[in-house]
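B., you asked whether I could sanity-check this one before it goes into the benchmark set. Here's the sequence:
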Amino acid sequence: MNIRVLGDAADVAEAGAGYIADAARAAVERRGVFTLAVSGGHTPWAMLRALAGRDLPWQRVRVLQVDERVVAAGDPDRNLEHLRGTLLANAPLPPGNIYAMPVDERDLETAAARYQRTLETLAGSPPILDLVHLGLGPDGHTASLVPGDPVLELTGASVGITGPYQEHRRMTLTYPVLDRARAVLFVVTGEDKAEALARLSRRDGAIPAGRITNRHVVVLADRAAAALLGEPAGRKGKR
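And here's what the prediction gave me:
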């Protein structure tokens, strides 16, 4: 796990945009397409706005969702609304290159299976995404893999449905697809994430984020989130 500590959330957002842009160019050069799965959050939306200003082969970028709340279309709690407001509003990304999780469907299990087929169409079977962007909650959750939810034990599917969490059920990618990704990028900011980040750095399996086994993990954190990291990890990239 490569942990880079930067000054503040704005620095993290800019560094994240640069990391994604480099990954996109490399993937398109090697495979002709770049598959990116993104999570939500204030710093990630700033990161995607910064990414939108980069010179990228946007026609070959495919954007998927890591997770989504089961709420009505157009609801501001949906990550999709922010994706459209950051990338589509500011980058020449074709609207059809964003693949929304179908949380509007009545049968959510069937909808999850359909999104898995979308992943397989874009990234092979089993799907191997180029880059998965993740956040980290104070309770150690990532994606919508939250403590105690049965979806944590789902190993036979790439997409699952959670129980209620903070008032909403969620559709989420599961550990198998996260662990197969060519790279995972955690973006972590704020002092309330400090304990969770310290545990993630130790691959603490008692928190959902710590159960990810992917060997290609990069963490971009601000100083507040990195406050409890031990040396020398807490020095990496510090400025």
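One thing to flag: The first helix runs from residue 9 to 31. Otherwise nothing jumped out at me.
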